[in-house]
# Entry
Amino acid sequence: MNELFSAISQAIIDASDFVCGVPEFLLLIGGGLFLFAYSGAVSIRRFPWAIRELRKKQASDGGKQQGQISSFQALMSAIAATVGMGNIAGVAIAVAIGGPGVVFWMWVSALVGMTTKFFEGTLAIMYRGKDSTGETQGGTMYMITEGLGKKWRPMAIAFTVFGMVGTLCFMQANQLTESIITVSGIESTFTVKFVIGVLMAVIVAFVILGGIGRIAKAASRIVPVMVVLYFLMVLAVVVLHYDLVPAVFSSIFASAFSFKAGFGAFVFVALTGAKRAAFVNEAGVGTASMMHGASKNDQPVREGLIAMLGPLIDSGIVCTLTSIPIIMASQSGLALADDAGLRNALGAFDMMLPFGQYLLMAIVFFFAFSTMFSYSYYGLKCTNYLFGAHNAKYYNYYYLVMIVVAAVIKLNLLVGIMDLAFAGMAVCTMFTLIALAPKVKAQMKLYFADQK
# Structure
């Protein structure tokens, strides 16, 4: 029996490694490049408009708007979900495997991801539906049924099934537990992990049981603060080691376009950086569409413009902030391990900044919890669609129990299942975005003509 379970587990892990490699990369980046070209490079040409729309106060119609939160809260909540362990541990692994050049390709991928998020945000408002209580809801499942038609409902159901699995925060809960144990020096026992898991669940429960309003308020306060604090932390590293800064950026560009090791090595570096950024910002996965679909905004293109700022912040700014101390430390003699992302990052910050690993641990704490807050909402939305609004509340209790479970178990199999679920969500979402792209383009023409 154990041999059968081991064989099935390994088969799932192998399938995850394959599907979430080149195939998923081609789907997200290839699809994003198509949308980038089809939209006329919206992420570049309309970037000033996005900044302007974010700064503009959202109009009120006396409480008659559809949705539950503001566009700013939707953006912050979506970023709260994507700014997490991947921005630290994932970037550290990417730099260890592909070298400094991966950072440049993260920037390129962020630019592509901005376009994909623009389409997600726009369609999330264009094609909203009603749940079993008549409450307005948005997300890929509603984009499918309202935009493509009821005959596509099986794909909407598939998306929500994948979503209920993919948005469980096993990785965040497990890695935060391991980080606390590593930094504190506490003995790693089942009891210690269980206690940490329970404490995490209590903190998360305080926020998520208050519904989307409390989640959005928490995210809109936590995200700007944690990004600014992280920026200040990296700025301190730059000030203390300003003489190393030119070498960092010269190595990023030199390594990004280096053919010294052959064309295959160049492609490997490009793929590693672009893939890491694509997985971090989740553009094309469909998670952000659920959050932006809850916005009170009734202008689809405006929501799309605000949504496209997400990859700029998480894949562009935060990933770059992580890479600078790591590259500095590696050039100063720190050996980076290919399979020890968070440990690499903790070691780099500790080398480059007094008490660096403890300061980074504090940032990791906020990053992990912000993700757990927002991911609970995604799973709740999927449960709502499948089983009705009156049953959706039970998902939160299941989610909290899974946080404790994640703190005490090994993750290989569960992460493989979650990665496959994310890939399934991406297939449903990218197909829908490309199929409905002409509808978005028509809205763009009307919106920008009216703005002029």
